[in-house]
Amino acid sequence: MEIRRDSFSAPDRPSRQINASGHAASDMTTQEIRAGGQSGMAALKPLILVVDDDPAIVKLISHNLEIAGYRVLTAGDGERAMREIRDHKPSLVLLDVLLPGLDGFGVCEEIREFSDVPIMMITVKGTLEDVVRGLDMGADDYVAKPFDVNVLVARVKAVLSRTRSLPKLQRPPLVLGQLQIDFSSRSVSLGDREIQLTHTEYRILCLLARNAGRMITKEYILTEVWGPEYHGDDHVLQVTIARLRKKIGDYQRNPRYIATRTGIGYMLRKPEEQEVTYADTSGTRPLAEAIASVRR
């Protein structure tokens, strides 16, 4: 599909467009990163990995991220992206779905085998199946082509902000049957097995745990976890909740931990409401069911 370059930036912000002087911006940034940066100040800036096989889109995104104060590293395919992630450990990955060879979904799945780095998927026209599949594989957010580059930068800032400010509370662990949430160490375990949650999944679980027994509205969760600009983006919340449930051995139709009130929100049950019987965690919620719930 042909993507018009002018579709990616606001028409009233011509200064944001790539010009001749910005042609080598991304290459220079990559060289500086590999050399350790030009100064100690540069090393403090978050490093963003942009993964896309379209050079025009890579230049546009990189240029605007650099203007916003970020360091940028780029990759044109999935294999290169995996090497850059292992070598440079970026603060966030902007990952296009349509890549040659190993596609964006495959890259996302491989990243989640060893890292909880925030991932923002770039999808074509926000196809629901692509959004659900990306979030179900562990992505934290998405942006659809064609996009306003200022919106993309704002969402990058929002993702980085919520991952840098994970709540670390000095309070006793919350035990719900086999599920234990240790607020001081920011860890979650099921029985004697520690569960690897993404930053977003942990923030949702922590928010529900701090309000155990109370129904929390979808709008409140979206604002607290993602930010006010995500108001009304229900499918992001629904798919992330579905992924969280799968990890903690919960089931939407017969929930042991997270209760749902359709159209309203979610509630983490109080400890005294828990049954002693332990749920089998081998079951998973089919992707088709997650997609159906988003459409409802």
Report on this model:
With 296 residues, the chain is of the alpha/beta class. The chain folds into two domains: 5-164, Response regulator (Rossmann fold, 3-Layer(aba) Sandwich), CATH 3.40.50; 174-295, Arc Repressor Mutant, subunit A, CATH 1.10.10. The protein is built from eleven helices and twelve strands. The chain has helices at 25-35, 40-43, 55-67, 78-88, 104-111, 128-136, 149-164, 199-210, 218-226, 234-247, 287-295; strands spanning 47-51, 71-75, 92-96, 119-124, 141-145, 174-176, 179-182, 187-190, 193-195, 216-217, 258-261, 265-268. A five-stranded parallel beta sheet has the order 2-1-3-4-5, with helices on both faces. Helix 3 crosses helix 7 and helix 8 (199-210) crosses helix 10. The two termini are 29 Å apart. Mean pLDDT is 78; it is low at 1-42, 274-288 and 290-296.
Summarize this structure briefly.
This protein is of the alpha/beta class and 296 residues long. The strands form three sheets. The chain has a five-stranded parallel sheet, with helices on both faces. The chain has a four-stranded antiparallel sheet with strand order 6-7-8-9, with helices on one face.
Mean pLDDT: 78
- End-to-end distance: 29 Å
The geometry reads as globular
Question: What class would the helix/strand composition place it in?
Answer: alpha/beta
Order of helices and strands: HHEHEHEHEHEHEEEEHEHHEEH
The amount of helix comes to 25-40%
Strand order of the largest sheet: 2-1-3-4-5
Q: How many strand elements?
A: 12
